[in-house]
Design goal:
4 copies of one chain form a homotetramer.
Chain A (H helix, E strand, L loop, with lengths): L4 E6 L5 H16 L3 E4 L5 H11 L3 E6 L13 E4 L6 H8 L2 E5 L3 H12 L4 E4 L13 E3 L3 H19 L1
Parallel strand pairs in A: 1-2, 1-5, 2-3, 3-4, 5-6, 6-7
Chain lengths: 163, 163, 163, 163
């Protein structure tokens, strides 16, 4: 069994800088025996999957379509859902804590949903959610190694509090 | 049949100012023969339902639980889902355009999801989503009558573009 | 407000006999002030919608796609979901009791799910579910007027028991 | 990567005979490098998980609640969903082919949904679905080794046809 389920979210486009960060995040999560959940497609999703893959870890793609083949080539497991972008919220439900790397409205939506569900989001990059109930639930940390450390600690807190 | 499906989203707590605005929004939507979709509970959801009710309109509560009785007393129809806050995204899927009134992380999540799905959000109050893909899809308008006008125009555009 | 939410399920193809029955079921449900939930498409779904429509009732189409225009022309409300046939289970969640009219594997799936969720299915036609937990939850009644009466009584029991 | 995703469905109660069969099915699927998807709880779900576990395979529990701890102790991965029994249909969406072992209305519902979605169900035990569209999609085979062989062949056909 894996220590924690960590969701990694971000856009389907990623520039070189954030792709490298996502790759590092994936490697570190795998080295810490975490199962990584993502949307399974391109961009940040593919970069984090690549990192997990290169550390022989577990990376699960929760896919929007009904076709397993739409997943990127680094995934350990492909889970088609057929519910489109609503699959984003299954990633959040599956995860004990979340790391958000850059991203657009889809990432904002997922991250805000995580906060609504009482889970912590560690943000690397531009994510901004300014509502009264985000205090302490949205943590900004641009160093990938430290972001992984915080996410694991928050996952531990979540699992202990919840159970 | 109703002209358009308009989603009205906002927090389960509402102060007097925003409750009055939500009530006005509900009245105007009903007067324009729109079916109103909301989360069916308290706060902004109840205030908008009240306004629709007082104009003899149609207001649908998409409920988080499995119990129809959890809906507020102004709803025309109660639709329990049993999927918790994931029901938020069914409200967005059901709607041609959205009006967001204040709100917290849950409202941010819904609004950002709407933008991801190509639907316009008219914001009354504090909502902020700052990603590159929101341009033109998030409109700020604090006057309830004008917000309803914009939402109806955007719903019209959405239906025409999509079909 | 409507007295009960009644789901009417059945195939997207219907021969004349069962279409007439579905039409009668729709009329009777509307005359008894029930909101009718269905899949919103052709076949049995369209026939029951027609009946509700001709009695000025409320018939809601929970649609598989993201396009409101895919609903049949008799619907009072169109609710697109974008989750494909998984929308079948939202119809069951929305309903206090279910009437199944003929149908194929999709109808069997919905009816069995209703039983799993503790709701009664009144079957007109060929539906067969032979498991140990269906006793009393699957009622066969081929007369549409009597089937509606039973469904309303079971909806009443469900609402009272649950609340 | 695993060769195929195979869903194994069945009741949350299992007598010794069917528990042993489920265990054998789990072992054989793991030996054939298939990822096994199940509901993650007791009964048949636990027995099949045990078999996969003892062959060092991959068994994923798609859980009804929001709590990862509700899964049985043999699971490789726990995926909480918070959507109750609607999680059944995510198991079907995730799978290329399905093996049904005994079961009640919940299993019938899942199996019928699989058929609706064009996937083959191999039934060990009592499952009966008698609709016109099940022909060839519901295969009865009580020998666990042969049932696994058929399921893998059908998964292969599904993946090839779909892609």
């Amino acid at each position: 069994m894996y220590n924690y389920n960590i969701g990694v979210i971000g856009g389907s486009f990623a520039d070189k800088k954030y792709c490298n960060i996502a790759y590092e995040v994936g490697k570190k999560l795998a080295e810490n025996n975490c199962a990584v959940f993502c949307g399974g497609k391109e961009g940040i999703m593919e970069c984090v999957s690549h990192g997990v893959h290169d550390s022989n870890g577990m990376v699960v793609g929760i896919l929007p379509g009904e076709n397993r083949m739409e997943g990127n080539k680094y995934l350990s497991l492909t889970i088609p859902t057929g519910i489109g972008y609503m699959r984003n919220f299954l990633i959040i439900r599956a995860s004990d804590a979340i790391i958000a790397i850059e991203g657009y409205s889809g990432t904002t939506s997922e991250a805000a949903f995580a906060i609504t569900e009482g889970k912590t989001v560690v943000s690397i990059g531009n994510l901004q959610i300014k509502t009264k109930d985000t205090d302490g639930k949205l943590v900004h940390e641009n160093d990938p190694e430290k972001a992984v450390e915080i996410a694991i600690q928050e996952a531990k807190n979540f699992v202990e509090k919840f159970h």
